Amino acid sequence: MLQPTKRYFEYTSDTRCSVRGCEKPPEYEVYLYDYYPLYHEEFFEQDQTCPFLCEHHMEENEFLADGLRTPRGYVKYPYSNRYQAQGYTKYSPIRELFDDIYAVDSKVLIPNSIEIVDVNKELIKHLAKHPEMLYELDPRKFEELVAHIFQIQGFDITLTPKTRDGGRDIQAVHKSSLGNMLYLIECKRYQSSNKVGVELVRSLYGVKQSERATMGILVTTSSFTKDALDFASPLKYELSLRDYETLKKWLKDYK
C-alpha cells in the first residue's frame, strides 16, 4: 500500500468536508498521486487544497472530473487539485471512521497503511443507484466507464484518441489458450430520445471487417432504430448492439 510523503491536516472530531458550505463530517481523506517514470518515483501527498470530503462530494468530485487519470497527466476536478498540478486525485477512508478496515486482523488492509478507494468502483456504484445520471456523463468519461467494465472482464483495453478513433472508441483484446480475439467497441452517450441509426451500425461493421476483428460492439445510453436492429440481426456473431437497459444490467452486476 502507498504511504503519503506529506500530510498537511490531521483529522479531528471537528473536521468538516472541505467543500465550501458543506457541514457534513468527512468520510475520506484526499490525496494527489503522480508518478515520475524517469526517476521511478511516486508522488503521494494529501491534497492541500481539499484535504477531506464527505461521500457525496467525493462521488461528485469524480463524476464531474474531466481528463484521463494517468501519471504526468492533467485532470480538472470541481473540488480537489485546485493548484492544477500534474497527476490525479485518490481517496482514503478516514481511519478513525473505518476501524473494521484498519483492524490488525483485517484482510483488507495491513496496519499503518492507506487504503485507496477504487474510483471506478465508486462511480459505478453511484450510477447503479442512479442510472439516469449516465446521460450527464461527459462522452469521454462514458468511454472510460465502458472500457473499465470490459477490463474487469479480463480484456486488455486500449482507448483510442479523441480525434482519431477510426470508427471505434475502444479496442478490447481477449487472450486465452484458444487464441486472441479482438473486439472493436463504439460508444455513443446519447439522450434517450436520440436513437442510434443504421448508418453508425453499418459503419462499425465496415471497420470490423476491414480490421478482421472478431466482433464490433456498439454501446449506447439510448436505443436503436428498427433499421439498425434489422441490419444487425443476421450478424449476431459479428455485431452486438447494447442499449440503456443492457448498461443498467452491467452496472447492477458489476463485481
How much strand?
A: 15-25%
Radius of gyration: 21 Å
User: For the terminal residues, how far apart are their CA atoms?
Assistant: 22 Å
Percent of residues in helices: 10-25%
Shape: elongated
Strand count: 9
Q: What would you note in describing this structure?
A:
The protein has 255 residues and is an alpha+beta fold. The protein contains 6 helices and 9 strands. The chain has helices spanning 55-63, 119-129, 139-151, 198-210, 226-232, 244-253, and strands spanning 28-36, 41-46, 52-53, 88-93, 156-159, 170-176, 179-188, 215-220, 239-242. Strand 6 (170-176) and strand 7 (179-188) form a beta hairpin.
How would you sum up this structure in a few lines?
The protein contains 6 helices and 9 strands.
Give the helices and strands, then pairings.
Layout: E1 28-36, E2 41-46, E3 52-53, H1 55-63, E4 88-93, H2 119-129, H3 139-151, E5 156-159, E6 170-176, E7 179-188, H4 198-210, E8 215-220, H5 226-232, E9 239-242, H6 244-253
Parallel strand pairs: 7-8, 8-9
Antiparallel strand pairs: 1-2, 1-3, 1-4, 5-6, 6-7
Sum up the structure in keywords:
single chain; alpha+beta; five-stranded mixed β-sheet; four-stranded antiparallel β-sheet
